[in-house]
Task: structure prediction
Amino acid sequence: MPTRSTVQPPAPDDQARADGFHRIAGVDEAGRGPWAGPVVAAAVILRTPRLPVRIDDSKRLTPAQRTRAFHVIRNHASVGFGIVCADEIDRHNILQATLLAMQQAMEDLPVPPELFLIDGPIVPRSAIPCRPVVHGDQYSYVIGCASIMAKVLRDGLMEFYHELVPHYALNRHKGYGTALHAQRLRLLGPSVFHRCSFRPVRELLLSE
Amino acid sequence: MSTLTDRQRLGQRGERVARRFLVSQGYIIEEANVRFPVGEIDLIAREGETLCFVEVRSTASDAWGGPLGSIGERKRRRLIRAARWYLQRLRLLPPETRFDVVAIDWLPDGTPSIELVRGAFET
Result:
């Protein structure tokens, strides 16, 4: 009787090393879904294989854990960032804007890697080889690091934008679609940080 | 000397009447006749915790469809834009906001008949 194999496929990072790549960069993005704020991408090349801090998909860490991890990663890695703001998202579309942010983050690295591991099914244009890793923020350590860097930088930017347009409570929902955000958007109309091309935003503003 | 048209004079008289009426209803007037690049608001007033943007309509008759009928889509948009402009520049958002309309109908003997519609329309 055949038994189901319990052998796990190797993590994308180990697979890449087994394939002979040494300097591997993880790339991930934060802020694809929200109604306001930029989409932020990060690219990370680790100088040590494991870090003395909990690394996981950024969504599974608390804000305090993420911030601590952010500083540890910054001290043990080369990091590049890409930021594509709301009006660029409106001009292109969110997929193109996300790929653009990733490309910027990849080019922002101080030294190029031999291979990029990119979160998601689609890979931006690059002269350096890229591998897409679906759910990479969960399965790949280095993509997990990139997801933390992107998320913490984006949250920090939203805190800053909140100072500029305080009535939208961007510091609380970080631009995501919440009841509070919807109420403020209906009351005040869009700010320069809003993605007016997003359907929920458009529909809230239609009443104007 | 005055260069106001009859219509403007009627409007001014209407605004004075509306203002007195709102005060008698317990409103606290904050601003009158505010003009912004995106539109203008006749009266901004507080009723309790609620900040009210008040449009005053002075008509000589019901021919225009009553107090609400005379506010077209364009006027409504301008009011909302002006209100947003004002709110964006406040240091603190009021807990509630509302659009009210005061409609004044002038009776043949010159006395005003006043109607207040709270929450006449939504943003």
About this structure: The mean pLDDT of chain B is 87. The CA atoms of residues 34 and 40 of chain B lie 6 Å apart. Helices of chain B lie at 6-24, 66-69, 73-88.
